[in-house]
Amino acid sequence: MPKETPYTGIFPIVPTPFTEDGALDLDGQKRILDCMIDQGVDGLCILANYSEQFLLSDAERETLQTLCMEHVAGRVPVIATCSHFSTQVAVARCRRAQDQGAAMVMMMPPYHGALLKAGDQGVFEHFAALSEAIDIPIMIQDAPLSGTTLSVPLLARLARNLPNVSYVKIEMPGTAAKLRALIEAAGDHIDGPFDGEEGITLLADLDAGATGTMTSGLACEQIRPIVTDFLAGDRAKAEAQYNRLLPLINFENRQCGLRACKTVMQAGGVIKSDHVRHPLEPLPAPTRDALLTMARDLDLLAMRWGE
């Protein structure tokens, strides 16, 4: 069942480090987890899109999930991403995550490529099967990547009718308006309205009722106060910090994507390589240099964690 005290704050995506030849860097993965916990996060999310989950084998997913759950060891709650087009596979992934101690699972709607998608009823049945299979909360990820339209009425229906569907991560165009409409439609059936997209619209989303954000691991210790100050009633302080960080957030979102976090962590001695698996490409040198200059100017913890 959903947690009595809902999760709030920042639950960033844990990147997956690789060696220069593309193998999993398991020691580096542990260092990333420690670095992110030292950033004061409220929780972590593993095996998400920014973890390059679409470039991992099933065996690698199992290795990483086991390592992450064991190494975090309850220091913060962990959300495990378990998305799959197959309801059967998704159910198995969710059960495994629960058995290993995940606090929540995050799921995209079932899709495979541009054309294989479920309709509204199929989406409902998919999440109904997941809700029946586990006892921990489910966060629905509403993101453009799936190409699936999750309307406010459908999301509200899922939240009202499925006990474990109690969190949403909205990162579609017009996030604030959708969050506001969903909160109005679903009421207290939504324990945690979150946003994503590196927090690029975070302040507007908080104004709309968001209580959490799921960014990358790039600047957690500096993004978290935006949420905590806002929720404590100090919007002016939250806005000042948001405006201070927005150039970096925008640069990450528009120019770097998932590569930014690993590049900064490599520069800061957290990991040895910022390698991304092909067909992804490394950051161009000018983009990398600009990112690292911004990270140094903001004195990000990840830039000096390994010193």
List the helices and strands and how they pair.
Elements: E1 9-10, H1 26-38, E2 44-46, H2 58-72, E3 78-81, H3 87-99, E4 104-107, E5 111-112, E6 116-117, H4 120-133, E7 138-142, H5 152-161, E8 165-170, H6 175-186, E9 192-195, H7 202-207, E10 212-213, H8 220-231, H9 235-256, H10 259-267, H11 285-297
Parallel strand pairs: 1-10, 2-3, 3-4, 4-7, 7-8, 8-9, 9-10
Antiparallel strand pairs: 5-6
Helix pairs in contact: 1-2, 3-4, 5-6, 8-9, 9-11, 10-11
Tell me what you see in this structure:
This protein has eleven helices and ten strands. The protein is of the alpha/beta class. It has a single domain (9-235), classed as Alpha-Beta Barrel (TIM Barrel), CATH 3.20.20.
Radius of gyration: 18 Å
- Strand ordering within the main sheet: 1-10-9-8-7-4-3-2
What's the architecture in CATH terms? Answer: Alpha-Beta Barrel
How much of the sequence is in beta strands?
A: 5-15%
Low-confidence runs of at least 5 consecutive residues: none
Q: Given the helix and strand composition, which structural class is it?
A: alpha/beta
- End-to-end separation in angstroms reads 42 Å
Question: Could you tell me the number of beta strands?
Answer: 10
What do the pLDDT scores average to?
A: 97
3D shape: globular
Number of domains: 1
- In the CATH scheme, the class would be Alpha Beta
Provide a count of the helices.
11
